[in-house]
């Protein structure tokens, strides 16, 4: 079965983010009313394009609120799956120049607080709840009381998962898939970064899928490095853009098509901020990448430490 496309709201729920091209994409229209309207427009386009997985997070500014408003405006829509994440708090105060935009906290107290906030906005529409950027260092994979609280949510019908980031994603994925509570797997949704510049988690993601977890790919366009106009001069991003030009398609389509083609991928997230970007992303579903191009793409991966060091250095804009 081929992967489906989902829509992530990281880039439309708050005024600043680390994606390339924010000035061109959003300009000065970044107050809450503007981004609420933009979110609705993007969700309308996504739904019309057949996208049925919608992804938010507590730290995506007001993304959950904007998503809830869109759902309330469309009571006839009952065939979408809603995922969100807890573990980061948005603290940017709607400022582009904030010194800190989000703070990580994987404690049981943080889960209890943030789940209540998510539930207040999304109610029983919440289908999937991920730990946001789980790592071994935060202790979230070893916290038995937290696991029991997550298991109660699992047993109430919400799928529990982890999202991962950083050069040791594979270790986190493997550890998460092993965790059981009351004889049943706890984490059955894995949301990880994979793109043609950062492929290191692929073996672990394949193992997770084989074990029955659903894999969701995020950052398939590498925070804009694999989107039109977002190339940063690195050899891999430059060559990916050249290959896309040779195929006669935008580089985002090629990048997303590569992610969609991974046999272990269940959903690949688009991070589009307007209907035109969404349409271009969605066209990746019909792109048949020639074997020779697939081979070239497979050679573009950067050392994980280098990729994540560069990502950490990206400015919020």
UniProtKB/TrEMBL annotation:
Residues of the NADP-dependent oxidoreductase domain: 39-295
Domain of life of the native organism: Bacteria
UniProt xrefs under InterPro entries: AKR2_Oxidoreductase, NAD(P)_OxRdtase_dom_sf, NADP_OxRdtase_dom
PANTHER family (UniProt xref): D-THREO-ALDOSE 1-DEHYDROGENASE, NADP-DEPENDENT OXIDOREDUCTASE DOMAIN-CONTAINING PROTEIN
Protein name: Aldo/keto reductase
Source species: Pseudonocardia acidicola
């Amino acid at each position: 079965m081929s992967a489906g496309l989902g829509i992530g709201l990281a880039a439309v729920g708050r005024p600043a983010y680390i994606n390339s091209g924010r000035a061109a994409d959003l300009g000065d229209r970044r107050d809450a009313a503007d981004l609420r309207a933009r979110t609705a427009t993007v969700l309308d386009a996504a739904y019309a394009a057949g996208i049925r997985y919608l992804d938010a997070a507590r730290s995506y500014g007001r993304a959950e609120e904007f998503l809830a408003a869109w759902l309330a405006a469309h009571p006839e829509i009952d065939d979408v799956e809603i995922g969100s994440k807890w573990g980061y708090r948005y603290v940017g105060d709607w400022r582009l120049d904030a010194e800190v935009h989000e703070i990580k906290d994987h404690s049981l107290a943080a889960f209890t607080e943030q789940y209540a906030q998510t539930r207040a906005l999304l109610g029983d529409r919440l289908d999937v709840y991920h730990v946001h950027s789980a790592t071994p260092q935060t202790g979230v994979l070893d916290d038995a009381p937290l696991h029991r609280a997550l298991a109660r949510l699992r047993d109430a019908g919400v799928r529990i998962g982890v999202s991962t980031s950083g050069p040791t994603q594979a270790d986190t994925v493997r550890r998460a898939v092993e965790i059981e509570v009351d004889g049943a797997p706890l984490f059955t949704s894995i949301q990880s970064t994979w793109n043609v510049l950062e492929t290191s988690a692929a073996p672990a993601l394949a193992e997770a899928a084989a074990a029955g977890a659903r894999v969701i790919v995020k950052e398939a366009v590498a925070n804009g490095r694999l989107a039109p106009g977002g190339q940063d001069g690195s050899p891999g991003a430059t060559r990916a853009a050249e290959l896309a030009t040779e195929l006669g398609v935008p580089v985002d389509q090629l990048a997303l098509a590569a992610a969609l083609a991974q046999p272990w991928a269940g959903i690949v997230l688009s991070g589009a901020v307007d209907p035109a970007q969404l349409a271009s992303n969605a066209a990746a579903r019909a792109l048949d990448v020639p074997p020779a191009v697939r081979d070239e793409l497979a050679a573009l991966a950067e050392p994980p430490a280098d990729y994540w060091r560069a990502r950490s250095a990206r400015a919020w804009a």
